[in-house]
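hey so u asked for the seq, here:
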Amino acid sequence: MKNLKSIFLISLIIFTALIHLAFSLKFPRHVNPEEIPEESLLPEGLFAFYLNVIDLSTLKRYDEALEELRKTHLFYMPENLKFIASRFNDFLADATNKLNLIE
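ran it, structure tokens below
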């Protein structure tokens, strides 16, 4: 019984300390969106993605290449790169479709 009281007392002290610690943390209520830096696109990842699409095309797996190419809408791209990337995707999809027709 004495052991149970000491465990309860220690648990109560630890619980109180954790509650005090949790309420002492200061979280910002609001962050101005203009102050947050824009996410950057990793060029290595983009290069590896397009390399995979071209690799699938050279292996004559055109349907898989087109399926991979359709996933580009899931990428985050800065506004100044979206138009260029969409045009490149269109050209690459067109070339892959034409290669598929030739085979």
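Residues 20 and 26 are 12 Å apart (CA to CA). Helices lie at 2-24, 43-58, 62-69, 79-102.
lmk if thats what u needed
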